Structures are given as structure tokens and as C-alpha cells.
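User: Hi! I'm working on a homework problem where we have to compare a predicted structure to a textbook description. Could you give me the structure for the chain below?
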Amino acid sequence: MAHSVYQHAARALGRAARRAGDRVISRRQILLGFATSLCAPYGLRAQPPERQRRVAFIGSTTRAAAGHLLNAYVAGMRDLGWVEGRNLVLDVRYAGGDPARYTSLAAEALALKPDVIVAGTDAVARAAAALTKSVPIVFILGFDPVGSGLVQSFARPGGNVTGFSILAFELVAKRAALLKEAVPRLERLGVLYREGDADAQRSLAPLASEMRKIGVTLIPAGAKQADDLPKAFEKMAQDGAQGVIEMPEPLFFQERQRVAELALKHRLPTTFTTVEHAHAGMLMAYAVDLVAMFRRAATLVDKILKGANPATMPVEQANVYELFLNLRTARALGLTLPASLLVRATRVIE
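Assistant: Happy to help. Predicted C-alpha cells:
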């Protein structure tokens, strides 16, 4: 019966084509087209939609300050097949440089039942981990994840949290030594830190001990919010600081342009934690590539979405650090950087 229907349709189409003067196609082509037109819509309807997974992203600063890092993370997810609107829902929140908001933002994110929470720093991850022991959490910039108790060890995190370590506080002494090399007369070193940051305050004493070995005395100056920065720089300048380093802090990343301007105003050479600081006008940066870190974070999220357990996923440690020198700032400060630094620089900003 079906065969006769196809034959009838083919003959009718053939006669219509000849009457219209069109090119007559073969019966095989007509039957194939007819069958395809019947089957194709059914095939499309039969394909199930992709399951969407929800990922919450909580940044510690602002989209204006760190939007390029979020873009890198999204690009990394796309490379692994996770595309917003197709199989991924991405909820984004920023704390605006205020640690007091971390807990409320984590609670908002958890209310939407995410499959994974991505935290910009380990401080954000700690706030989220205090609210859930079941939702996996990935931190991208781990300043002190073991010392703060967020994970049990780098090799076996042991809970629902894993991520990356950037040796933030361990490298402060290295940055100070580089600044001493750039400014040999340096004897009094300002240290900008975030008031209330237990990690930073815990690191001040061992840093002071290290600096005494190279004849440098520390002048700590705290800032709790952006409006405190001018007073912090005034204090360091009045106390005889000849240069400034930072205890790594998202607020100083968010306000990097303002910090660079204050340092130049007080004629204080600086070395900070990210390449973004150097581009903002700081003299030097000894830094990991944050863009690469955020893009790489997608690999951990991908593994978790595919069933991996963060408790057994080792915290990965950044092992490539680059030296950036801003020669424009050096000229503005009247400094001539030694050749020993110039030859080791990864990038020089003219």
C-alpha cells in the first residue's frame, strides 16, 4: 500500500513538472526527497534537549575591575563544551571589595541550587564552605588555603572544596627583595595591608624577620576600605618609607589605579602582586598570570560536573611567575633600574 502511494506521488509530480516545463528529476530523487521530508521533522523532535548545569561565580571585587578574568573563565568553559544558554547557566555576583558581603552572596547563590560554586579567592570559598558541605566549591586564587583551614592539605583537600594556590603570602618577601634590588638605598619599607585580614596580619611577623636579614625595617599601614588608602600612604610617607609592597588583597587589586597614583604622588616605588598592578602604574610586579589561572579553573569545574569528587582533587599550585617592570614609572620616579633586573624581566612596560 505504501509503495503504491509513493509511486502515485512520483507520477503526479513528474507530470506536473513536465507540464510546467521544469527539468524532470528521477523517480529515485523524488522518492528520496519525499521520504526525507516525512522523516526529518520527526527526527528533530526526537532529539532530547541538553541538560543545563548551574554554576555560581562569586568574585571578590567588581566586574569593572575583574571582568576580564570572568571572561577568561567563561572562555575556558566554552573550550570544554560548556556554553551559556545551551548546557550551562552561570550566576555571577561581585562583592565590590567588601569581605562582609561574602556570606550573603554565597547564601544567595546556594538558594539557586548550583551544581558548583566558583570563588574568586579562598576567602570567598571559606564563606561558602561555612554554609554548605555538599555543594562543590572551586577557589581560583588561594592565598593561604591550608593555613586558613579551608582544605586539609594540597594533596587531599578532604571536603567539598578544591582549587589553586598562588603562594600569595610566601612570595611577599621575594617581592620585597626585588624592590630592594631596584632601590638599593631602601631601608624602610611600607607594607599596605587590609585591616581585619587575619591572613595578612599572621604573615607580618615572619616577613619582618626576613626583611631584617637584608637590613630593611617594615612600616605597616592598614586600610579597611578604599577611602582609607590616602591616609595609609600618608602614614607610610611620614614614617620615612622609601618603597611600598602589599599583603595581597582584592581591595588593592580593585583600586589598583588609585593605589598607583598615590604611590607616585608620594614618590614611593612599589612592587605588587599582579601584572594588572604594573599596567596600572606600579613600578614592578612579580606575578602569576591571573587570566591563565581563571581560564584553567574551568578544567576543575568541568571534572566536577562530570562526577569528580573535590575531596580527592589536589589543590594545584601555580608554578610560573613573571617579573614585570614599568619603565614609565621608573622615569617618573627618577630611578634607573639595574641591568640585573632588566635582563630577568618577563615584560617591560615602556
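For your comparison, note the following. The chain has three domains: 2-46, 53-166+290-317, 172-287+321-349. The first helix runs from residue 2 to 19. Good luck with the assignment!
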